[in-house]
Structures are given as C-alpha cells and as structure tokens.
Amino acid sequence: MIEIEFYCENNSIFLSIVEKTKKILPNDFAYYYNLVKVLFFNINIFIIL
Prior knowledge:
86% of the residues lie in helices and 0% in strands.
C-alpha cells in the first residue's frame, strides 16, 4: 500500500477516483480490487503520455 499511497500524492486524478470508489464500494475486497485496477490504468496512461 505504500507504493499506491506515494503514487496518490503525485496524481490528484487518481486520488479523487480512489475517494469516489471508497464511497461507492464499502466492501474491502471490491475497494482494493478497483484500487489496483485504477492504478494500472493510470500507469498505462502515464506510459502513453
């Protein structure tokens, strides 16, 4: 989780998506699953840009 938190600090869009996901999905498994999915999605965009 340290890597994800560090990445959040450098990506306000990712951080806002995480906050929205947290509110929508109270289930821990679903929350962390989406957290990882969004993280990889953002990495792909970063590589393209």
